[in-house]
Amino acid sequence: LELSLNCVYDYVEVFDNSSMANSLVGRYCGSDKPPAMTSSGNMVTIRFVTDFSSAKDGFSLSFNFIDVEKSFFKITNLSF
């Protein structure tokens, strides 16, 4: 993605649900990778925006599904 101040030309936005209202997690551009993210629900929206001023390679995205029931643990004994 094209690097620009405030990511105004080409960017990817990540939203934490299917509605983009008030759920923006971040806007990303350039070659820096965003941090790992975890959704608060079962939907995420990824939006790619370009101004078409230059042709580049685009972007790649990787994601994993996890079973929430198996991803949490319970502390039964804590000692100091």
How would you describe this structure to a colleague?
This protein has 80 residues and is mostly beta strands. It has one domain (11-79). Helices cover 5% and strands 19% of the residues. The protein has one helix at 68-71; strands spanning 11-15, 24-28, 45-49. It has a three-stranded antiparallel β-sheet with strand order 2-1-3, with no helix packed on it. Strand 1 (11-15) and strand 2 (24-28) form a beta hairpin. It starts with 10 loop residues before the first strand and ends in a 9-residue tail after the last helix. The mean pLDDT is 78.
Report the span from N to C terminus: 49 Å
Overall pLDDT score: 78
Tell me the series of helices and strands, N- to C-terminal: EEEH
Largest sheet entry? 3 strands, antiparallel
Tell how many strands the DSSP assignment holds: 3
**Order of strands in the sheet with most strands:** 2-1-3
Number of helical runs?
Answer: 1
Taken as a percent bin, the fraction of beta residues is 15-25%
Low-confidence stretches: none
Shape: elongated
Oligomer: single chain
Helix content: under 10%
Radius of gyration: 17 Å
Which structural class should the secondary elements be placed in?
A: mainly beta
Number of self-contained structural domains: 1
Throw out a few tags for this protein:
80 residues, elongated, mainly beta, 3-stranded antiparallel sheet
Task: Summarize the helices and strands and which ones pair or pack.
Blueprint: E1 11-15, E2 24-28, E3 45-49, H1 68-71
